[in-house]
Amino acid sequence: LKDPRSPEDQIADSIKEEIEALNIPPSHSFYDSFGKGTMGFAFSRKFGATCPVPIDASQRPTKRPVRHDLYITDEVRNERRLKLCDEEYGKFISEMWFSVRQAIESEQIRELPEDVMAEGCMREYKNIQGNKIDVEPKDEMKERIGKSPDLFDWLCLLMEGARRHGFRIERLGKNVIVDT
Predict the structure, then answer these.
(1) What is the largest CA-CA distance in the chain?
(2) Coil, helix or strand for 10?
(3) Within 10 A of 104 (CB to CB), how many other CB atoms are there?
(4) Residues 2-21, buried b or exposed e (16+ Cβ, 10 A)?
(5) pLDDT at residue number 82
(6) What is the rounded CA–CA span in Å between residue 121 and residue 116?
(7) pTM for the model
């Protein structure tokens, strides 16, 4: 028998059941909203006003610090300050992928499953105009490796949710100065 609900409504129902069973507030649940955007409507129907939080990876990088211990000398003000993500990355997806990398290198994330880590290591990146870093477009990566990097994208959404709730990336006790 075919389920009369749309795939989006089925997903929203499943997510609601899971986060309620785990006692997780919807505001602590995140999803990738890039694409056709129909999940948001399904979540609204299921959750009402307090829904899982959409994250659109196609946005511009944020004004948050890359890490809370990575400093540059501001040439305009001639003072030391934290380097911002919009100064380091060309796209928000690059910020998300490199935020996970920064947390791993800072030893704030450990013991990742091998399949997640392997996917994260497969994405290529390059320096672009303005001395910024960008990861390769997802469609190019999919063509190159033969699959979508869904596992590492999941980890990136998890990290972004944690950052939005106050998680700070830093190499504890190791302040780093980068002159630009």
Answers:
(1) 69
(2) helix
(3) 17
(4) eeeeeebbebbeebbeebee
(5) 96
(6) 9
(7) 0.88
